[in-house]
Every structure is written in structure tokens, then in C-alpha cells.
Amino acid sequence: MKRHLSALVVAGWGALNGVLLAVLGIYGESSLVFWLWGSVVALLGLAALAVLASSRSGPEQQVRYRVPNRGAAAAIPAAFGCFVVALAFVYGLWLLALAVPLLGVAAAMAVRGTGPREE
Known about the structure:
The protein has helices at about 5-25, 30-55, 75-90, 95-110. By secondary structure, the protein is mainly alpha-helical. Helix 1 packs antiparallel against helix 2 (about 30-55) and helix 3 (about 75-90) packs antiparallel against helix 4. The radius of gyration is 21 Å and the shape is flat. About 5% of the residues are buried.
């Protein structure tokens, strides 16, 4: 089951949305809500099947992912830092206390070229 864990995650997400759809039914929502949320549950089921089919067709491709450039590992903390800066404009400038260190870490990683270690 370890090989098909990604399909299980997507299917679980769809099942959770199905439970939420049932909760909406208990509270008596309109039919439009059922059509919209039901289509989301159906699309998640199809996505789970697609992920399962892709993991069965080429499981050797999902063993390891490498970042091509060692400085490219800085993209994730930089993205989170920019996201927190955007949140700071909405929720207050105190969030800059979180964003500035994140952006500093991203800059240090980009300059030093820190990334996943090669074996």
C-alpha cells in the first residue's frame, strides 16, 4: 500500500468531502449546493482513480525527486515568505516578524546553494 499512498490521500480527501456533503444534507441546503458539492466529490473520485492508474503504470518514476539546481531549494521558503508578506498587508504588520526571517533563510539558501544532499 506504500506505493499507492498518493491515491489513498486523494480518495480520503474525496471521502471527507462526501461526509461534509452529508452534513449539508442534514441541515437542509438547497439543491444547487448538492449539485456543486456532489460534482466536487465525483471529480475527487476521478482524480483518485487517475492517480492510482498513474502510480500503477510507472511506480519506478515516483521513487525520488531531485531539484536540478542546488539553489532552487530556496524557492519554497521564499514562496512562504512572500505569502506571509501578503498576509501582513491584510492582518497586520506584525506578520513581518515571521516573513523577514523566512526571506532571510531563502536568501541564504540561494546564495550558499543549500539543497538536498546528493548520494
